[in-house]
């Protein structure tokens, strides 16, 4: 009896402790005049970009301290939504995925930063994606674009002509098959190309390059030529089958870095990764370069035209609930991050900033970056369309399109049936609901 | 009131006393439970009738969410898949868990080791587990299909990469993972069966099978009931296993209700609609559980 | 009554004596089956183990390499530098034991109220308990998070304790077990003048050691492996648990598979040891504790 009573008392004490709480508040009492801004980010150990801009800004504005707040990389939006809903969000937070911009903007969680955008002019790529009702709600500081990575050594070994910026998808497919045949004859297990399991590898290009294509139209016929080619390449053995890539959890870094494939379409962020992996031995040492992504028609190929590709920008937004006295500093921070100074410091760590023209010199001074003309040209010439044009229905429609992707690539459904199915679903579940 | 007979008053006092005693037992747990779980769950019932978007905006929309749900094709697919999983997962896991418990409830050299091994799938990280099973199921290179080809099956299934076989593959892994977990509960339950009952049965000439039917299974009734209820709810709510094994694919072939709720809420920011789906899932689980309760009560009375 | 007071047996009685020859072959065969089954069950763990000893780019290959070559022991040194494993393990241990203690204590206490005290409304209340298990956590995660934030619980270890310790699972499990203990036993104690709390303490608790053992182990494992709870509630690095720490590590070093597997192996080992030590209560629990009261 006595002991059970003690237990009850103990538990009650524990509960009251729990209820009164013992959490440290995160009040940002600042010394007179100085301001502390909180900036969200992810994976600080391997993603130095947040610290780079925070430190750079602090150096230019010593009275403002930028405090970093780490979020989980894969569950960034889940954590951010929870924090914002509870009124505990950071002052400045990146729009990690363009797909979710609508959620924050429509949920009134972003401050209008049109004045910052006006001050930056039109050099910053991807700005238009963050506009709604004539106002701008986030400022892109990086803009990756998808390009074609190719292994010069493997091309030379097979005796196949390297990409020259004039390729359409047919040229690409022919080269992939040609490479595969020659590798096989030479007793090598490498194949022509690797396309990662993401829906973007097929759908991103289809959406960007097809005239009049739009996700919100609910008409997905534009996907057909792209899927026909992707399925054909994997059936021809020129590329690892989707099912084998998913079940074996193949990584694109190793597929290209360990010379399993001679070509790979990937975002420009992979440049930094590849440099690092070649440096520390995770990837083989070989000569490589980047070329523009293959085009749908000849009209956009060659160096007289601008190749069309896709890629989502990463923008910084300001929490709508930010303290009034911090707004000016936060806006100045955004302007710094997207401006030429921020861009240069980002380029030095291998990041593709939103303003590529301003940084091409510092970028190509990084050790290990290919120095050929095509690579340099590709880095600065691109008409980059968003993969997820912001909109009320984008997230829901992309889910449907992802189901289409896995169904077609795994061979569970043929392309016509899958498109018809996705269109019906889009109409019934999203557009006309 | 004053004319109430003494017996009734005594009875009333007893009820009062029992209520006080009963609540004093419940309170430590109930206080925490009510404040931290029951309140948010109750809120959910409100949000299901709104267009809640988590950031405060929750406009009352009446039955709109439920109306939309009634002709949501994907929801129907998710529900069918969930029922498919449940119908196979429950009996398979039940039999496997009971079998393991019976096998490991004896004095045997190394029984501690084998029990730990049986429990291992449950403690191994789910990511590693999905990884290994996916490799085992790999259509062209996986050991399972290599074996099937070796015994003469020319076109073995594509398992997690085929719309028809992905669900069976997930069910196999789900059963394999949870059998050890429920084995533990059966092991505890087996301790409640008095040895004397076995001896009496043996005196009556019952063989091992008959003893299992006449003594073990009836003795395990409360445990079995618990396991079945938990398995049912767990199967209806299956989430993380699907997420790491197939992520609902290929196509929608392994899309389940919990995953659909997550998609609608966190990915598409339709938390009101997601709440409505949760309420439906809750209602289904609740009805099934109550039926199980009634069956259990009738069974234990007879 | 006397029969029921005797502790239940340790095992299902062994089959009647058989010719020794046949018994031995059968036993050997039984072991062979168990060993094969154990090997099959341990396969994913084995894969984790060999992957943790491989060079990074050898982890995912076609076809699978079942032996590490060369063996890379360095991963087990590197992980302590790259990841804050000590802090994570410490926090996880504290949380797991705190949650398990509270869950077993309040759960078995409440279960007694549900199973052995008759008062009006307990069935409805119990169904409410059960009902909440059927609601997926993802759907009420945000309202709960807002509530916890208002209580200043988020970003403290208390949030995970509060989240896990008062679950319905323990109440249900203990209630089912208590129902197998005959009421006559309790009535006898009541006649002897024991209070309800005394009965719980001196009769129910000792008799339910196997149930407490399984509840403890299951709660411990659940808390240990919980990922979503810490993900939502714990932001400061100093209070991270092993699962959230590992996952963040995975996201940061998303291409360093062998290190990730090293971390996974290290995260499983403590719980395996605890299980190995704890499982004996399924055999010895009742026999040693017995009925002394």
Describe the structure.
The complex is a heterotrimer of chains A (433), B (302) and C (293). With 433 residues, chain A is an alpha/beta fold. Chain A folds into two domains: 153 residues, D-Maltodextrin-Binding Protein, domain 2, CATH 3.40.190.10; 209 residues, D-Maltodextrin-Binding Protein, domain 2 (3-Layer(aba) Sandwich). Chain A contains 18 helices and 13 strands. In chain A, the strands form five sheets. Chain A has a four-stranded mixed beta sheet with strand order 8-9-7-10. A three-stranded antiparallel beta sheet of chain A has the order 3-12-6, with helices on one face. In chain A, strands 1-2 form a two-stranded parallel ribbon. In chain A, a hairpin with a 2-residue loop joins strand 4 and strand 5. In chain A, helix 5 runs parallel beside helix 13 and helix 17 runs antiparallel to helix 18. Chain B is mainly α. Chain B has a single domain, classed as MetI-like fold (Orthogonal Bundle). In chain B, 74% of the residues lie in helices and 0% in strands. Chain B contains 13 helices and no strands. In chain B, helix 7 packs antiparallel against helix 10. The longest helix of chain B is centred in the N-terminal third of the chain and has 42 residues. Chain B is flat, with a radius of gyration of 25 Å. Chain B starts with 5 loop residues before the first helix and ends with a helix. Chain C has one domain: MetI-like fold. By secondary structure, chain C is mainly α. The two termini of chain C are 16 Å apart. The chains are: A alpha/beta (433), B mainly alpha (302), C mainly alpha (293). At the B-C interface, helix 1, helix 4, helix 5, helix 7 and helix 8 of B face helix 2, helix 4, helix 5, helix 6 and helix 7 of C.
């Amino acid at each position: 009896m006595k002991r059970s009573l003690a237990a009850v008392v103990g538990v009650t004490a524990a509960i009251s402790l729990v209820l009164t709480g013992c959490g440290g508040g995160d009040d940002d009492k600042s010394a007179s005049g100085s301001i502390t801004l909180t900036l969200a980010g992810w994976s600080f150990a391997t993603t130095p970009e947040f610290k780079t801009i925070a430190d750079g800004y602090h150096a230019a504005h010593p009275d403002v301290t930028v405090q970093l707040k780490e979020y989980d990389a894969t569950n960034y939006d889940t954590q951010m939504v929870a924090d914002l809903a509870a009124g505990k969000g950071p002052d400045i937070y990146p729009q990690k995925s363009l797909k979710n911009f609508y959620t924050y903007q429509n949920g009134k969680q972003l401050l209008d930063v049109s004045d910052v955008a006006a001050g930056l002019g039109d050099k910053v790529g991807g700005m238009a994606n963050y506009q709604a009702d004539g106002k701008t709600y986030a400022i892109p500081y990086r803009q990756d674009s998808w390009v074609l990575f190719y292994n010069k050594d493997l091309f030379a070994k097979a005796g196949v002509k390297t990409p020259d910026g004039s390729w359409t998808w047919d040229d690409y497919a022919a080269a992939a098959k040609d490479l595969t045949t020659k590798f096989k004859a030479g007793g090598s297990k490498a194949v022509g190309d690797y396309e990662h399991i993401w829906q973007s590898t097929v759908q991103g290009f289809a959406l960007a390059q097809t005239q009049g294509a739009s996700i919100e139209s609910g008409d997905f016929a534009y996907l057909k030529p792209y899927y026909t080619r992707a399925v054909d390449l994997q059936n021809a053995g020129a590329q690892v089958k989707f099912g084998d890539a998913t079940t074996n959890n193949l990584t694109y870094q190793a597929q290209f870095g360990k010379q399993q494939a001679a070509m790979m379409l990937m975002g420009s962020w992979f440049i930094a990764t590849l440099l690092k992996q070649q440096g520390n031995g995770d990837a083989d040492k070989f000569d490589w370069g980047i070329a523009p992504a293959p085009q749908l028609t000849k009209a956009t190929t060659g160096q007289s035209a601008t190749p069309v590709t896709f890629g989502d920008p990463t923008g910084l937004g300001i929490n709508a609930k930010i303290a009034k006295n911090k707004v000016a500093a936060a806006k100045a921070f955004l302007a710094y991050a997207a401006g030429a100074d921020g861009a240069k410091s980002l380029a030095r760590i291998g990041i593709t900033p939103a303003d590529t023209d301003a940084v091409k010199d510092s970028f190509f001074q990084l050790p290990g970056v290919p120095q050929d003309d095509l690579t340099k040209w590709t880095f600065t010439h691109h008409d980059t369309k968003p993969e997820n044009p912001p909109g009320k229905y984008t997230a829901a429609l992309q889910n449907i399109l992802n189901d289409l992707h896995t169904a077609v690539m795994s061979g569970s459904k043929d392309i016509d049936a899958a498109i018809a199915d996705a269109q019906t679903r889009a109409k019934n579940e999203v557009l006309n609901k | 009131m004053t004319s109430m007979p003494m017996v009734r008053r005594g009875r009333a006092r007893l009820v009062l006393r029992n209520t006080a005693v009963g609540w004093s037992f419940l309170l430590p747990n109930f206080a925490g439970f009510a404040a931290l779980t029951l309140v948010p769950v109750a809120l959910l019932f409100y949000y299901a009738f709104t267009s809640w978007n988590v950031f405060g905006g929750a406009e009352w929309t009446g039955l709109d969410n439920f109306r939309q749900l009634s002709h949501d094709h994907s929801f129907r697919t998710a529900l069918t898949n969930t029922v498919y999983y449940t119908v196979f997962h429950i009996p398979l896991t039940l039999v496997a868990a009971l079998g393991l418990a019976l096998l490991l409830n004896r004095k045997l050299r190394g029984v501690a080791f084998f029990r730990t091994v049986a429990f291992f799938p449950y403690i191994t990280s789910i990511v590693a587990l999905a990884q290994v099973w996916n490799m085992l199921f790999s259509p062209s290179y996986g050991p399972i299909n290599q074996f099937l080809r070796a015994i003469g099956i020319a076109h073995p299934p594509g398992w997690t990469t085929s719309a028809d076989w992905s669900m069976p593959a997930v069910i196999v892994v789900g059963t394999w993972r949870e059998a050890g977990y429920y084995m533990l509960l059966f092991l505890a339950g087996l301790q409640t069966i008095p040895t004397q009952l076995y001896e009496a049965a043996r005196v009556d000439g019952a063989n091992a099978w008959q003893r299992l039917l006449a003594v073990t299974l009836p003795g395990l009734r409360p445990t079995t009931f618990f396991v079945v209820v938990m398995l049912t709810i767990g199967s209806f709510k299956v989430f993380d296993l699907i997420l790491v094994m197939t992520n609902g694919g290929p196509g929608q072939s392994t899309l389940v209700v919990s995953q659909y709720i997550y998609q609608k809420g966190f990915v598409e920011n339709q938390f009101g609609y997601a709440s409505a789906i949760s309420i439906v899932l809750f209602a289904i689980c609740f009805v099934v559980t109550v039926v199980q309760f009634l069956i259990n009560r009738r069974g234990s009375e007879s | 009554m006397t029969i029921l007071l005797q502790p239940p047996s340790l095992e299902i009685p062994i089959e009647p004596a058989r010719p020794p020859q046949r018994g031995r072959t059968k036993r050997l065969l039984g072991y062979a089956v168990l060993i094969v089954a154990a090997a099959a069950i341990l396969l994913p763990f084995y894969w984790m183990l060999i992957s943790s000893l491989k060079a990074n780019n050898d982890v995912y290959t076609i076809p699978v390499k079942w032996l590490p070559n060369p063996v890379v022991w360095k991963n087990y040194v590197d992980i302590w530098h790259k990841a804050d494993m000590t802090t994570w393990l410490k926090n996880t241990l504290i949380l797991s034991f705190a949650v398990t203690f509270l869950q077993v204590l309040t759960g078995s206490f409440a279960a007694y109220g549900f199973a052995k005290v008759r008062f009006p409304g307990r069935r409805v209340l119990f169904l409410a308990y059960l009902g909440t298990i059927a609601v997926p956590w993802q759907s009420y995660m945000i309202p709960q998070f807002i509530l916890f934030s208002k209580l200043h619980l988020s970003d403290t270890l208390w949030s995970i304790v509060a989240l896990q310790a008062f679950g319905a699972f323990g109440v249900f499990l203990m209630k089912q077990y208590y129902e197998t203990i005959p009421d006559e036993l309790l009535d006898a104690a009541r006649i002897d003048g024991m209070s309800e709390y005394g009965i719980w303490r001196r009769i129910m608790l000792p008799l339910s050691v196997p149930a407490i053992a399984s509840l403890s182990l299951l709660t411990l494992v659940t808390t240990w492996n919980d990922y979503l709870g810490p993900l939502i509630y714990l932001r400061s690095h100093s209070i991270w648990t092993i699962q959230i720490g590992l996952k963040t590590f995975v996201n940061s070093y998303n291409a360093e598979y062998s290190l990730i597997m090293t971390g996974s192996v290290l995260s499983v080992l403590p719980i395996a040891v605890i299980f190995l030590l704890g499982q004996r209560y399924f055999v010895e629990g009742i026999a040693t504790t017995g009925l002394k009261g």
